[in-house]
Amino acid sequence: MNKKQTSRRNWIRNTSSSIAGVALSGGMTSFASVGGRALEPLQAQTKTSPTTDEADRVRRMKWWHEARFGMFIHWGLYSVIGRHEWVMENEGIPVSEYAPLAKQFKPKPFPAREWAKLAKETGMRYMVMTTKHHEGFCHFDTKTTDYCSPKQGPGRDLVREYVDAARALGAGGLRTFFRHILPNIAQPILVQAAIGMAGVILAEATLSFLGLGIPAPAPSWGGMLNDARSHLFDSPHLVLFPAAAVAGAVLGFNFLGDALRDQLDPRTRLEMGL
């Protein structure tokens, strides 16, 4: 590993800082005037009134600020070499060198029980464990990759142990689901439902157009298109309106899915500065 190598994360951070510095210095020296009266810079004006997004963030963070005392658990492959969680990115460790740590990562049985016991005895209000970090290693079972704890060194689902330990000390199933699981899965479920609806509409219209969908006399945009084929030249509106309805519905649900993703995904909101 080259110690002088600049990591991607540091490069982005340094470049962003430079651009922000140039923009700020340019903005602070740019003044407008009306009738000979100088106006304050736009930056100074925007800082005086909090935006709706800032107020929403304050509302969402209220419980966490009031809880005050809790536990964040960062552990993973980087624990094998006794380093911080961003070691692969910050120090530019190649994947070929870092990935084999997955076989060496063999935590002792049920460490989450000790964490949960400590949290309860000391009066902590919350406990958060990193289940997947930037290097992609998953502490839970998944069919999308073999780079996960059940298929590597640990040989078991570490997230399941974590949840079971919390339940054993009084965190009920409904509380765990509504407090911790549902807020994390709501975003991908809503986005997938919206985008999936567009696919359902298109599939139904296609099957009905081919005569394999909803039988008559039930209305169907695909069936309307099929019936209107023979009137394409003498009555084109019979084709235009159902085709426009299908296209509008499909595009509408796709746009809705994109909007939900932009609004609910924390990474997207961070990139957009929300």
Write down the overall geometry.
elongated
Query: Nearest-angstrom radius of gyration?
Result: 27 Å
Distance between the termini: 36 Å
Mean pLDDT, all residues = 77
Structural class: mainly alpha
Q: Tell me what portion of residues adopts beta-strand conformation.
A: under 5%
Oligomer: single chain
Counted beta strands = 4
Strand order of the largest sheet: 1-2
Count of discrete domains? 2
* Count of helix runs: 12
List the secondary-structure elements in sequence, H or E. HEEHHEHHHHEHHHHH
Stretches where pLDDT is under 50 for at least 5 consecutive residues are 22-47
How would you sum up the major sheet? 2 strands, antiparallel
Helix content: 55-70%
Describe the overall structure.
With 274 residues, the chain is mostly helical. The protein has two domains: 52-171, no CATH class; 177-271, no CATH class. The protein is built from twelve helices and four strands, in the order αββααβααααβααααα. The chain has helices at residues 8-28, 42-46, 52-67, 87-90, 95-98, 101-104, 111-121, 158-168, 173-209, 221-228, 237-264, 266-271, and strands at residues 33-34, 37-38, 70-73, 126-129. The strands form two sheets. It has a two-stranded antiparallel ribbon with strand order 1-2. Strand 1 (33-34) and strand 2 form a beta hairpin. Helix 9 packs parallel to helix 10. The longest helix is centred in the last third of the chain and has 37 residues, at 173-209.
